[in-house]
Specification:
single chain; about 525 residues; Amino acid/polyamine transporter I; two-stranded antiparallel sheet; disordered C terminus
Length: about 525
């Protein structure tokens, strides 16, 4: 089909769904895939929580990667059907709105939007240790990555830079994401090759061992799994991968800026999760096999740099740079997705300040005010870096451990919010199909549509329970992921606040209003 016909068809489909084309449709399939892959970012996820996965599950935790990837591929297929049917900015919000109704869609958008913006702060905070390491090496500084001022300053610079990249056009966002894909490819496969050349310390049989992590006396974290790996340690170790393999849905958030989204967005989602799975498995494989013979506990304490210490110093610096770029690309992609959700809600007059937030810049055709919100809210979350109690805090049955930066605890909420919004979206698709909806976009699952939807929804529900289930701080889940009741509490507060606003303002009853061009 000629390009002009594609463009006309994209515009007609948008108009049939109630909107005019206002954003610049400049992103190719690779750009769309690159944004989704940069958000998923195997390097960012693994460099952030590899030690938690390995420390909770031992080398055997690597086998949870294909399990998570397989089930999230089912979710990506469900989202692909929805994205092909409703190629609109805001993705999950729009899917819920059209499948079930405006009120259901609004709740999905509220939860999903907050989770995305919390992710911006949590992802960007992960860059601090690597930036300070590089600066201390290159400039002989003595920066402390745990210092509150240092964390705030570095993360603030990253957030502002990401906002600028998002504001000057979708094409720039796509370009930043492209670089992210190249860096991720070099950083994942390159680390594996470099460690292999240097010489692995273990054979493949090492990947079947647990290193005694299921026993409290030999656990690197001192947590108690009661001696059970499959029904104890593995259920916590799998969360290290649960926290990585999402973000592919952001391909749908930028659907209105993508050419031929009905075909390209579903493909980008599938490619992002599958390539992310391969890259992650290769990187984790290399890291595990390169652990020094007697250094498992030392790696869990000191992190990935302990493994890379065997490489030449210039190569270590090179991989540090790759990691920093990957973190920046990931944060920029997440901010882009979050701003499009805010824009989509504002365009439907469904959030406070909608008249301002729905404006699109005349020059770059970007929702700059929505991007500003996607900058300010992560800044507000960043202030949590100041909350770092020196003593345990115990109120009623809520117990917050000492010396845990509240910004780190935010990671658990971000993931639980994402999984809740994912589950509600898949549930909405299932209900719509039971009511008679038959996907009619350019990508459908045909007779497999309902079984895939059910299997994907069941996985999301079980993993959501695994994430939020309140656990003792002596257990693996409690001390490593959800901090007892904290994750569930934060998610409850976000849902209740949203529920109060929705009940009072009833944004779902307000008319759909098009964006206003910025003068």
């Amino acid at each position: 089909m000629p390009v002009d016909e594609h463009v006309a068809r994209d515009h007609d489909r948008l108009k049939a769904l109630g909107y005019n084309q206002e954003l610049s449709r400049v992103l190719s399939l690779f750009d769309n895939f690159a944004v989704a892959f940069s958000y998923l970012s195997p390097m960012v996820g693994i460099y952030s929580i590899f030690v938690i996965g390995a420390g909770a599950g031992g080398p055997r935790y690597i086998w949870t990667i294909p399990i998570v990837v397989a089930f999230m591929t089912l979710v990506a297929l469900v989202f692909g059907e929805l994205a092909s049917e409703y190629p609109l900015s805001g993705a999950l919000y729009q899917y819920g709105k059209f499948n079930i109704g405006p009120r259901f869609g609004w709740f999905v958008g509220w939860i999903y939007g907050f989770a995305l913006l919390a992710t911006v702060a949590s992802v960007d905070s992960g860059i601090v240790g690597y930036v300070t390491d590089l600066m201390n090496i290159w400039f002989k500084t003595d920066l402390n990555p745990a210092n509150h001022v240092t964390i705030f300053a570095i993360v603030a610079v990253v957030i502002i830079t990401s906002a600028i990249m998002n504001s000057i056009g979708a094409k720039i966002l796509g370009r930043v994401a492209r670089y992210g894909v190249y860096v991720e490819t070099i950083g994942t496969f390159g680390v594996f090759i470099a460690l292999a050349i240097k010489g692995f310390h273990h054979n493949l049989g090492y990947l079947m061992t647990t290193q005694g992590v299921q026993f409290q006396k030999t656990s690197p974290f001192g947590v108690n799994f009661g001696g059970h790996w499959l029904t104890g340690a593995a259920l916590v170790a799998v969360l290290a991968n649960v926290y990585i393999f999402y973000g592919f849905e952001s391909a749908g958030d930028i659907a209105e800026e993508t050419k031929d989204p009905g075909r390209q967005v579903p493909r980008a989602m599938r490619n992002a999760i599958l390539y992310g799975g391969v890259a992650s498995f290769v990187l984790v494989l290399g890291l595990l096999l390169a652990i020094p013979k007697t250094g498992f506990s030392k790696v869990i304490t000191g992190g990935i740099p302990v493994i890379l210490a065997s490489l030449p110093s210039w190569l270590q610096d090179f991989f540090l740079i790759m990691v920093i770029i990957a973190f920046f690309s990931c944060g920029t992609a997440v901010m882009g997705a979050g701003s499009r959700v805010a824009f989509a809600l504002a365009r439907d007059n469904a959030i406070p300040g909608a008249r301002v937030l729905k404006k699109v810049t005349a020059r770059h055709r970007t929702p700059r005010n929505a991007i500003l919100v996607a900058t300010i809210i992560p800044f507000a979350f960043l202030l949590l870096v100041l909350v770092n109690p020196s003593k345990p805090v115990h109120v009623l049955w809520f117990y917050y451990p000492a010396n845990v930066n509240a910004l780190f605890a935010l990671v658990s909420f971000a993931t639980s919010g994402i999984y809740l919004s994912f589950f509600l979206t898949v549930l909405g698709s299932f209900i719509a199909k039971r009511r008679g909806w038959k996907p009619s976009g350019e990508f459908t699952l045909g007779k497999w549509s309902t079984p895939v939807t059910v299997a994907g929804g069941l996985y999301l529900f079980l993993m959501l329970l695994n994430i939020v289930w309140p656990s003792s701080l002596t257990s693996g889940r409690g001390v490593l992921f959800n901090y007892g009741w904290i994750t569930l509490l934060v998610m409850f507060i976000i849902v209740v606040v949203g529920g109060l606003y929705e009940a009072l303002a009833r944004p779902d009853r307000k008319p759909n209003q098009q964006s206003l061009p910025e003068s």
